[in-house]
Design brief:
Helix content is about 70%, strand content about 0%. It has about 100 residues and is mainly alpha-helical. It is built from 3 helices and no strands.
Length: about 100
């Protein structure tokens, strides 16, 4: 019996589609390849390492669910996201100055 998709799964699919469109448009419009073959291989290897570390994690669990402080989580995620964007644009612009 097929159930309804989880909202997080749907959001993930939307992000993957948006990323695919971004890559395609950047190649077609700007003749710029944002991801090289080496980057894709490194991404796959690093992703596998993260998944394996989660799969073999031996955490003791409790019977009642943990409570997350979402204000802290979202704040830290926002700061790290902004820092990542600034670092990416800085690397991109400094590589063109050569």
């Amino acid at each position: 019996m097929a159930g309804k998709a989880h909202p997080a799964d749907e959001a993930g699919q939307v992000l993957i589609q948006a990323w695919t469109h971004f890559i395609t448009l950047s190649i077609l419009v700007f003749n710029f390849y944002p991801m090289t073959a080496v980057m894709i291989v490194l991404l796959a290897l690093l992703n596998d390492g993260a998944i394996l570390s989660i799969a073999y994690d031996k955490v003791h669990y409790r019977n009642n669910p943990e409570a997350w402080n979402m204000r802290t989580v979202l704040g830290l995620a926002t700061v790290l996201g902004i820092a990542g964007v600034i670092a990416s644009f800085g690397t991109f612009t400094s590589s063109d100055l050569g």
